[in-house]
Task: structure prediction
Amino acid sequence: MDDGPTARGDAMGQLIIEDPEVIADAQALADLLGSTMTDVIRRALRVRLAHERVQRDPEKRAKYEALMAIAERASKHFPPGTTSDHSDLYDENGLPV
Result:
C-alpha cells in the first residue's frame, strides 16, 4: 500500500490526527510543559524512535543488557530501603555538615 510521499517523509505534508484521546493527551502535555502540541509530539516521536533504534541495534542492546546486569548485581549490596537521599549529610544551606 502506497500512502504517498507525505507518509514516507519524502515531502512536506501534514499529519492529521482524528483520535480525540490522542489530541487531548497531546494538549494536556503541551499545557503542562508550556509548549505546543507539535513540539510534544515531535519530542515523543524522537524519544520513541531513539528507543526503538537502540532495541534493534544488537551492539547497543548488548551494552544496555550488560549495564542492567551490573545494576542488578550491585543492587543486592544495598540494604532494603536505601535511597539516593543524602540530605542528612548537608545543612539547610546545602553545605556538608
